[in-house]
Amino acid sequence: MSTLTNKAHTPDSAAKPPRQPRTKPERPIWDEEPGAAAKAGKIVVLAVVVLAVLGPLYTIVLTSISSQATITQAGGLVLVPGEISFAAYQQILSGGVVTRAVLVSVGVTATGTALSMVVSILCAYGLSRPGSFAHTPILFTLLITMFFSAGIIPAYLLVSGLGLINTYWALILPSCISVFNIIILRGFFMGIDRGILDSARIDGASEWRTLTQIVLPMSKAVTAVIALFYGVGYWNAFFNAILYINDSSMNPLQVVLRSYVLQGVSVPGQVDVGTGAAAGPALQMAVIVLAMIPILIVYPFVQKHFTKGVMIGAVKG
Amino acid sequence: MSTGTERTAAPRQEVAAAQDSGHSAGSTTAAGGLGAPGQGGGSGGGGATAGSTALPLRPKANLKLRFNRDRSLVFMALPAVILLAIFAYLPMLGNVVAFQDYSPYVGIPASPWVGLDNFARVLADPDFWLAVKNTLVITAFQLVFFFPIPIALAMLLNSLVNPRLRAAIQAVVYLPHFFSWVLVVSVFQQIFGGAGLLNQSLRANGWQAVDIMTNPDTFLFLLTSQAIWKDAGWGIIVFLAALSAIDPAQYEAAAVDGAGRWKRMWHVTLPGLRSVIVLLLILRLGDSLTVGFEQMILQRDAVGAEASEVLDTFVYYTGVQNGDWSYAAAAGLIKGLVSLALILTANKVAHIFGESGVYSK
């Protein structure tokens, strides 16, 4: 079982009880079996919760891959699979606004995540040894920004003063590091057995080498989680784009999604409905699905690593 | 800085279970063996560090020696510090425009100083107070109707005996947290909008369509439902962690003493969650003035400014959209300072009640 365990790091924070194994294979003997009504209640509540999450996603994905006839027959969103057609995807991905927006989003997300990860891992490792030179001042420099943020106006004035308006850097640099993520990484690095690091040093490894060859290979799970956090942040960023990007040809996917689904701009190709092209609803759903796909692909691989330790260590920073 | 404070920090190096998917054969696991004494309830006695591998105390060295030793560590932290200096600290200084009559054409150095005029204008502006009122109403509403949901859900999940079922449900409920607000609002639009699934089927059955997405009167409920759909599932992660840290022996002892299911929940489970609940409440209170900024921008056209104006949108629309920079910066600065005061106060109150809060001293 992979765990990202992480104890509270403030010296005088309350004592944390030891972790219990998360899986209880059997009901303990002192715990009475719940009554039939209680069991049924639980099942109903959980089923409703799961359905509330998955239901909308199901119908949206299904509608996006349904043919015009099926959609018309269903009178809107499709609940029962009918004729399957990928016309909507062919249409929106055949060049034009959506294709370009996807490329922008992919580029910004890839570049941004790589940059964020390098900077954050270095910083977290640099701060992982209390007592090192300037450790406390640097840590405070980071933490203060969690309590007071400057606000929208000065941030905008800065980005425009740096000449970053209408550049992709405006979508990356202002949100490049999250102190929260650095604290999670740092907490994990601090939990690594000192003996291992010391023996590396005795063998003559520099800090850089210790980080890349010992610490990082031991921290795959936590780096995967943090990379997901950063990646999702960049992929989902919407406000930065409407704030800093005025050139509509540079819009990322989220902005395009908003204009098609929420602002009623017609999706290119929608006017061709009469000629047998994909229907309007299918096109809108296809754009929604495009915005979801990267998350749906990456999420299953990373979610098993979200163990509670990550979050607890983080909030306790 | 004095080495004294740093020295006291050394024993915090508790070695926790730090293995990664079983690849790292060398890493030692100390999961169960840590800090057995001194746990129990939320009382938070000491003793967790007992038995942990403490960092060997570093020799007291002069600054230069220490710098030479830790040079690479400092350089590693540097890029992040530089980015923060530019994109977090520089804008803090940029707040001086709140005391100016700033014009983008002449820049900050040449803009005239006006003292506190902008603040006086902001505080006399009914639109500002409307934004304050909306913000606080939304925060209060969500505190009552959103905040308890993850707690309840976590307790429900925790009561499931089958670990695989539990993991599967967790995987599903965490998912919407990773969708953007644009996506969440779009999904709601497709289900509840005028041409959405719900209204289609209502009409098909001869009923009246309901106006959910554009009705300012019910906007509060809509906002909260969206927030619940997106984040309530993710919220349980912290509570599950706290629940798993409760010693089963406490339940056992309570059961032996004749406490039933509900009594155990009241006397064991809830006290075990108390410090996490307090912590999250503090964070939420500190964030009282920040509510659903992107949600508001996305739905402003649909429900109108009257219902959807909050402090952040007020700053954005007056400043960036209308070009009244100094005025908006003043409003933003008021918000930032009040938020800071709120979080410090909430933390203070938590200390008074014996909780550790966000930071401890």
TrEMBL record, chain A:
GO cellular component: plasma membrane
Pfam short name (any one): BPD_transp_1
Record keyword Cell membrane present: yes
Region Disordered, residue ranges: 1-31
All copies of domain ABC transmembrane type-1, residue ranges: 102-296
Transmembrane intervals: 43-62, 101-127, 139-162, 168-189, 221-245, 282-302
Topology term for the membrane: Multi-pass membrane protein
GO BP of this protein: transmembrane transport
Compartments where located: Cell membrane
Keyword annotations: Cell membrane, Membrane, Transmembrane, Transmembrane helix, Transport
InterPro entries (alphabetical): MetI-like, MetI-like_sf
Sequence similarity: Belongs to the binding-protein-dependent transport system permease family.
Protein name per its UniProtKB record: Aldouronate transport system permease protein
Species whose genome carries this gene: Pseudarthrobacter oxydans (Arthrobacter oxydans)
TrEMBL record, chain B:
Residues annotated as domain ABC transmembrane type-1: 132-346
Membrane topology: Multi-pass membrane protein
Alphabetical list of InterPro entries matching this protein: MetI-like, MetI-like_sf, UgpAE/MalFG_permease
Keyword set, alphabetical order: ATP-binding, Cell membrane, Membrane, Nucleotide-binding, Transmembrane, Transmembrane helix, Transport
Biased composition (Gly residues): 32-49
Family: Belongs to the binding-protein-dependent transport system permease family.
UniProt protein name: Polysaccharide ABC transporter ATP-binding protein
Naturally occurring in which organism (per UniProt): Pseudarthrobacter polychromogenes
